[in-house]
Each structure stands twice: as C-alpha cells, then as structure tokens.
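Reagents: none. Just compute today. Protein kinase domain-containing protein.
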Amino acid sequence: MDALGWKPLAKIGGGRFSDIYKVQKNDPENCSAVIGEQQLFALKLVDPDDEKPPHNIRNEIKILSDLKKAQEEQNTAISNVINLISVSFNNIEYGLLFPLLDMTLSQMIKSHVKSRVVFNSDGTMKMRKVNTIPIDNVFKIVVGLMKGLDWIHSRGVIHRDINPNNILFSREDPVMPVIIDFGISYQGPDNNGLEKPDRKFTDIATGIYKAPELLLSKRDYSNKVDMWAVGILIALILSKDGKPIFEQDSMYSDLVLLSNILATFGSPPSDWSDCKGLTSFDSLNRTFFTKSPKPLETIVPRLFEEPETDSSSKLQKTIAGLTKYETSQRLSAHDSLAILLC
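Predicted 3D structure written out:
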C-alpha cells in the first residue's frame, strides 16, 4: 500500500476480492495541494489476478471513469453516486481512491433500531425491537437512491449489486445516500466486450436483493433488476424492527428466496413475458401452487399504521411499482422520481 502512496489507518470493509482501508497521504503536508483540503480517504485494493467473473476491477475503473467524465462534460455533480478520485497501480494490485464516508445503510438502520418494553395482556413484559427512522427521512433517502440510479441508468450502466452495504452516508448528511461498488456492474452495449447483451451473467446481486428473473436464469435482463433490488431495500428501511421482509435462509438459497418472493408477492403471471419459454419458468409453473400476493400493508405496515402523509402515500405507490414481476410494468428510477417529486 505504501507503494501506492498511502498510509493505512484501519481496514473498514471489503469483500471476496477486495479490501478497503481508511488512508491518508504518506506526505500529508502536500496532500491538500493534490486533492484539496480533505485528509482522509477510502482506498479500495484489488489484485486483478485473484478475481473471478463477473468481478472485474478494470471494468469498474472504466465505468467509474466514464461516469465521472460525463458529469464533467455536462458540468453537473451527481451527489448520490460515489466519485472516483484517482487510480493507482503497483504492478500487483489496483488502488481506487474515494471520498471517505462514515456508515453503510445497514449500520444506519441498526443505529435506529431501539428496544422497547411491551406489556402483554396477562401483565407480563417483553422487549421488542422498534425501527425509529422517521418516514420523512426514509422518503429523502429513497429520492436520493432514485436520483443516483436514474443517473447511472441514463449512462447505460446496470449496477447489479444494490444492497445495504453498498449504500453509504456521511454523519453530516444522514439522509443523502451514496451508491458505491461498481465491481460487478454492466455497461452497455456489451460491458466493454465482456458480456453480450443477451448473455449477461446471472450470478449477480446479493442474497434477497436478487430480482425474480435472475432466479430463473434470464440472461437478457435490463436495469430493472436494480429497481427490484431497491424495492426490497426500501421495505427493509421501512421495516418495523429493522429486519428484511424475507426469512434469513433466503440470503443463502435461491430456492428459498424464490419461495419467499412467491409467498410475499404472489405467483408471477402464467404468461410472464420476461421469462416465458425459459425451462426454469416452465418448471416453476409445474412445481409451485398459485399463490396470492400479500396486501402491501402487511409487507410495509409502518406506512399504514402511522397517519398517512404525502411522503407515506408516495412511498406506497413506489414500492408497489418496484415489485412487479413484469419488467415492462416495474417502475424505472425516472418513473419513481416522477411519483415521489410530483
């Protein structure tokens, strides 16, 4: 890491193929002359020889650089997408330098889950976890997520891994989300020669945030896989206890996840155009009984238990539109903003 010009202070994250450190410049006196007044940064280290598709650090650099260039050309700043400051290479690993942000969405939700005493009818007591994130704050976070997704989608990019650990916040502005980690993202038309549009990788997304068409091995999917993921993400932010709407085993088993999706949102239409003709979809229709969707008020009860506001009403419409099976009916980020900001 020293060869890249940075002094590590603490490891703050990472995944299968990367490590992320809080760093400062080896020569802090000259740091401000190079990259402004900020002294602390996040450095993502990746050895490209260790990666397995769809992870590709060179592709991530290309996508982030193109997004940055587009903002510069349009003289605009998209605050809800992480900004790549610089790239280093020491003949072994790449170092991607980013602004340092304080917490993930997972950490933010956890900080708002409080223990409350509940009295039972027989006079006994029990402790209950309660999510205290204000609905108006959720609304602002969702608007920020949609602005970020609308921007990257307009540039032909599918993120492919929207989940709570890839959304960051600063403590100074805890309602402005920043989308990070483009390590498995797709850039049209063919992901810079790595994937044909109709032969995309389906081993993408994290756990419960996989769209149903991915579970059925649809390979010519669109950016609507991001929109399904953000719909499930919003349900998490709005949960009563800070827990996901699907059971824990759904994180590790696609079959369990599919079963949970069907139990929550009902069976897909028998003529589902996105997956009709796929062997996996034909098997699904033969294997599972037809199920009806749960009412939205049982999926995100907080939106219905509190007095209805403009924010809660718009969030209801948005979640309902994001969790459609038919991708032609599933809301885009642009359409979501039209609902939220009308």
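The chain has a mean pLDDT of 93.
Action item: order primers for follow-up constructs.
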